[in-house]
Amino acid sequence: MALDDLTVKYRRVVRRRALLIVNPKAGNMRAMSIVAPTVKALSEAGYESMVFTTDSCGDAAVIAAEYGAESELLICSGGDGTVNEAVRGVMELEKEQRPVIGCIPMGSTNDFAGAIGLPKQRKKQIETAISGVPTEVDVGRFNGRYYAYLASFGAFTDISYSTSQEYKNVFGFLAYIGSGVNSIANIHPIRALVLTDTRMIEGEFAFVSISNTPSIAGVINYARKNRVDLNDGLFEVMLIDYPKNAMELSRIAHALSTGDFSCDLMHCFLCSEVRFIFDKPVKWMLDGELARAGHEVLIENIHSAVRLMLPKG
């Protein structure tokens, strides 16, 4: 190729900026393998790229907050924790400064990527992150701390992220329960007062989730019965009562496995804000990451907070 032709090909024009944040430890240390093909694809799409790798928890949030305003596109590569941090960082910016967020799932837990339907093939994941459909979605705020899609506590929370998806796919929900919650003795009731603008529920709960996702951990599937709108300003709230015997535990497992949440041991509703009051501090999970809170927790839905690159169609 003649030099003149190369000059035309690489002539400096007004190019968009992209920020790529990679967790190098994700995917059993394989995450760095996506840097070269992603930067190449970004260049071909007309982007100048800034690439950062994270060293410790919280780095992605700091990088997103520091460099997000000068970028039109932010691509995060890692697990659910990396997505959580990218959202937290972007939410520190004024809304008009927030870049579109694309995700290339590389972590041991990619629950959110599966829930929003990101493709499995790496090349298509990169393509979606760059050229997908920018879609406004809600974000949660947990006592002032932002999260992407799920706040939860209780019996099933830890298992959701420690049980392999293959195990859940092959053996189903009852076997999934058996991997860690195979008897009443393994479930510890958590007493709470739950308040919204229209209801007050007090009781002992085995599991609670406040989410903005079609499914949780590949097991709890809202979309099986109803469409879940990621940008309606409302959370999907699920409160599961503490089962008093094996029969009640079986009924809960059946309801979750079928997606029929009309079971009288479950409280499922939509709301934009919910407050929890506990008699003792509770361990929460935010997008699969541990979060500790005191005796009171306020969770708010921030409507149309960020834009995500979702698959076309």
Instruction: State the oligomer.
Output: single chain
Question: What's the shape?
Answer: elongated
Query: Major sheet: size, sense and barrel closure?
Result: 11 strands, antiparallel
Let me know the number of strands: 17
For the record, the count of structural domains works out to 2
Model regions low in confidence, pLDDT < 50 over at least 5 residues? 167-182
- The value of Rg in angstroms is 21 Å
Proper CATH architecture of the largest domain? Sandwich
Structural class: alpha+beta
CATH class of the largest domain: Mainly Beta
H/E element order: HEHHEHEHEHHEEEHHEEEEEHEEEEE
**Beta-strand content:** 35-45%
Terminus-to-terminus distance? 39 Å
CATH topology-level fold name of the largest domain: Tumour Suppressor Smad4
What share of the residues lie within helices? 25-40%
Count up the helices.
Answer: 10
Q: Calculate the mean pLDDT score and round it.
A: 86
